């Protein structure tokens, strides 16, 4: 199940082209394929102008945050599988006061057979599902239903 709305895909791709997100994700895919280090990527929307500072304060030093546009962000949790990423995301949401009816987070774990486009398409699909979900965090498990 993948979201194929052309307008959303074009907007998302435009944001990615203008940011450093693709470079970070591509580097983590390389590390995953070469060394087997798990990595989880996520996408969220937050209107807090201090979001980036708060992310830095409440995340690990190895985590990365990339601002896209319109209050949307991509983050990377390296050396982290889905269960750890869910816990880290819950912790961030608690400390950063992101647990309201508007803020949703989508996370997906990268796989050795992923390419950059398939990983980003899966993340966008999950983000669209998250935006319509009652759950604060939506992960890969919803795609297997």
Description:
- The protein is α+β, with helices and mostly antiparallel strands and 145 residues long.
- The chain has one domain: 2-Layer Sandwich (Alpha-Beta Plaits), CATH 3.30.70.
- The chain is built from five helices and five strands; from the N terminus they run ααβαββαβαβ.
- Strands 2-3-1-4-5 form a five-stranded mixed β-sheet, sandwiched between helices.
- Strand 4, helix 5 (116-131) and strand 5 (137-138) form a beta-alpha-beta unit.
- The relative contact order is 0.20.
Structure characteristics:
single chain, 145 residues, alpha+beta, Alpha-Beta Plaits, five-stranded mixed beta sheet, 5 strands, 45% helix, globular
List the helices and strands and how they pair.
Elements: H1 6-17, H2 21-35, E1 39-45, H3 51-58, E2 64-67, E3 72-78, H4 82-95, E4 105-109, H5 116-131, E5 137-138
Parallel strand pairs: 4-5
Antiparallel strand pairs: 1-3, 1-4, 2-3
Share of helical residues: 40-55%
General shape: globular
Please give the CATH class. Answer: Alpha Beta
Strand content: 15-25%
- Kindly name the structural category: alpha+beta
Distance between the termini: 9 Å
- What is the assigned CATH homologous superfamily? Reverse transcriptase/Diguanylate cyclase domain
Quick overview:
By secondary structure, the protein is of the alpha+beta class. It is built from 5 helices and 5 strands; from the N terminus they run ααβαββαβαβ.
């Amino acid at each position: 199940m993948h979201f194929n709305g052309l307008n959303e895909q074009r907007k998302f791709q435009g944001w990615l082209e203008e940011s450093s997100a693709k470079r970070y994700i591509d580097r983590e895919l390389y590390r995953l394929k070469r060394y087997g280090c798990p990595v989880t990527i996520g996408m969220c929307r937050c209107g807090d102008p201090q979001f980036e500072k708060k992310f830095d304060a409440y995340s690990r030093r190895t985590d990365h945050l990339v601002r896209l546009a319109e209050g949307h962000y991509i983050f990377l949790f390296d050396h982290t599988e889905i269960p750890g990423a869910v816990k880290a995301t819950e912790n961030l949401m608690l400390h950063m006061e992101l647990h309201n009816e508007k803020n949703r987070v989508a996370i997906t774990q990268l796989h050795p057979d992923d390419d950059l486009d398939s990983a980003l398409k899966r993340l966008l699909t999950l983000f669209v599902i998250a935006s319509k979900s009652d759950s604060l965090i939506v992960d890969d498990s919803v795609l297997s239903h």
